[in-house]
């Protein structure tokens, strides 16, 4: 039988959810596309500013209902930032200490937000070190390692309502093409793509799921090889997505197609999107949208009509010192003029022209 504290903690999280509205679905104004509509599910409007708010809520409820968290438990999570921000929010909501284990290169704004919610930041030099260090801290402090990379795919009810897939299809009901031809998602834990892919199959929908992976991530290679032992030596430069190992929550069997997106394309598309919607987004949104434009180009060339849905993962204000800093881009990404030119051509033709390289 759960304790009164556990009941109260779950009630607080449920009340917080009840106070929250759903996120908007934005239709992009792209008259150069003929018969293909692109939509962005704007997850940046959650209370903690990102898609990971949904995941953090689910992880806390999952852990509470499993009996893993008590009123004296310290919560530990390995994260590149956004999940930690959201988990710090929920930890404060139910009165628990929180420690985020994260790369030292994490955007300063995310660090400030974690600390604003009362969390502590514990830094490692490389993202590969997060897992072991989180486990060590949990053992040392008799805490609970939330482990988003393992539990993301099972903490969310992909069959029922109130998940992101269900929300997308409800919001699309009055659109010209209400059943999306494609949904495009980039993987961090892999949990969101697992939820969307499973929901599509469970509802017997014709929608296909395309997953777009950044550089220095092994998900794309695993999808094509089936080798779960793949590892990478570098961390992704697109915060929040891409992993140097095959995470347990990434379910390749629900994915129809994958693309590897160059980091330069992610940055260029992120900046291009600002000219369309008048506000900044994170680089993972650029990854998502570039993948959607690749699919829109193919649909145009094949004479297909339909809709494509992808996500705004978080707001760009978190990245003013990185993705919106020309010196940081020069030092970490390099020249991406070829992608800027490609998007400029798209403005005229509605097609992403092939690159020379």
Would you give an account of this structure?
With 357 residues, the chain is α/β, with parallel strands linked by helices. The protein is 42% helix and 14% strand. The protein has 13 helices and 10 strands. The protein has helices spanning 4-18, 52-65, 82-93, 108-116, 130-141, 148-155, 164-171, 191-202, 219-225, 263-277, 283-301, 326-332, 337-349; strands spanning 25-27, 36-42, 75-78, 98-103, 120-124, 144-145, 182-185, 208-214, 257-261, 306-312. The strands form 2 sheets. The protein has a 6-stranded mixed β-sheet with strand order 1-2-10-7-8-9, with helices on both faces. It has a 4-stranded parallel β-sheet with strand order 5-4-3-6, sandwiched between helices. Helix 2 crosses helix 3. The longest helix has 19 residues, at 283-301.
């Amino acid at each position: 039988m759960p304790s009164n504290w556990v009941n109260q903690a779950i009630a607080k999280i449920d009340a917080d959810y009840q106070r929250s509205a759903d996120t908007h679905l934005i239709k992009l104004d792209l008259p150069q596309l003929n018969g293909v509509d692109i939509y962005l599910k704007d997850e940046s409007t959650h209370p903690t500013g990102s898609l990971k708010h949904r995941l953090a809520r689910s992880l806390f409820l999952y852990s509470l209902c499993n009996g893993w968290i008590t009123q004296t438990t310290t919560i530990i999570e390995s994260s590149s930032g956004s999940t930690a921000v959201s988990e710090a929010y929920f930890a404060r909501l139910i009165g628990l200490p929180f420690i985020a284990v994260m790369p030292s290169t994490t955007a300063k704004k995310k660090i400030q937000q974690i600390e604003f919610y009362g969390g502590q930041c514990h830094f490692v030099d490389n993202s590969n070190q997060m897992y072991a260090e989180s486990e060590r801290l949990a053992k040392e402090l008799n805490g609970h390692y939330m482990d988003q990379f393992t539990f993301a795919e099972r903490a969310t009810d992909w069959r029922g309502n109130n998940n992101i897939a269900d929300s997308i299809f409800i919001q699309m009901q009055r659109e010209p093409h209400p059943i999306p031809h494609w949904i495009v998602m980039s993987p961090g834990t892999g949990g969101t793509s697992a939820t969307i892919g499973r929901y599509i199959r469970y509802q017997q929908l014709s929608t296909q799921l395309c997953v777009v992976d950044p550089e220095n991530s092994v998900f794309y290679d695993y999808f094509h090889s089936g080798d779960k032992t793949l590892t990478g030596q570098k961390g992704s430069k697109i915060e929040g997505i891409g992993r140097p190992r095959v995470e347990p929550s990434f379910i390749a069997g629900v994915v129809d197609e994958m693309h590897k997106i160059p980091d330069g394309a992610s940055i260029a598309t992120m900046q291009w999107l600002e000219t369309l919607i008048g506000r900044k987004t994170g680089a993972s949104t650029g990854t998502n949208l570039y993948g959607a434009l690749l699919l829109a180009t193919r649909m145009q060339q094949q004479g297909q009509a339909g809709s494509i849905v992808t996500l705004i993962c978080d707001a760009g204000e978190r990245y003013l010192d990185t993705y919106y800093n020309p010196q940081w881009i020069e030092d970490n990404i390099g020249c991406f003029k070829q992608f800027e030119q490609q998007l400029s051509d798209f403005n005229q033709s509605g097609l992403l022209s092939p690159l020379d390289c």
